[in-house]
Amino acid sequence: MLFSLAKSGINGPADYVGKKVGLKIGGNEELIYRAILAKVKIDKPALTEIPVKFDITPLLTGTVDVWPGYLINEVLAAKEKGFAVNVVYPSDYGIDLYADTLFSTEKMLKEKPDVVKKFVAATLKGWNTAIGAPEEAAKITVKYGDKLTYDHELAMMQASVPLLKPDNEAVGSMDEAGWSSAQKLLLAGGFQKQPVDIAKVFTTQATP
Prior knowledge:
D-Maltodextrin-Binding Protein, domain 2; 2 domains; 9 helices; about 10% strand; about 210 residues; mainly alpha; three-stranded antiparallel sheet
């Protein structure tokens, strides 16, 4: 999503005109940013794009007015430093994408399907367990990162739960419509050159 400091008075994309917008080139942040601009019909020359990394200092110091980031990370980091923020949610503009996904090769799927199935099952079990016990998940995470703090990891997990369970579907559920929508955004933004037949490449059936 995109967010800005509340004191800037920037409340939505219409306020981006004439502002300095941080841009993480080539990633899903840029894809979502471009899609939002297209939805509200703001042309690129109407604002100033500044390449940024992951350190939000440029936003906090006013070098950049708008920042692309994750609700469960950069937004939390700004709040933890005492800054109130205004957030632009992509879903408010009809942009709803699958986030973290697992992928493998055709060779792996054919030669070791049981390994793939077990990996997927373990991943889903881990997410469902973490959703049911966010405090325990945060404690485990901190054990494996000497620069992590429990409070931040717990806040991240708590902010993740509504996003992991936005409906009554099981965690990890996908459908053809979701991938078709993603492909339209990829094509419109120039991230994908040629369309593929989603009906042929998407399946919920396990590989034999």
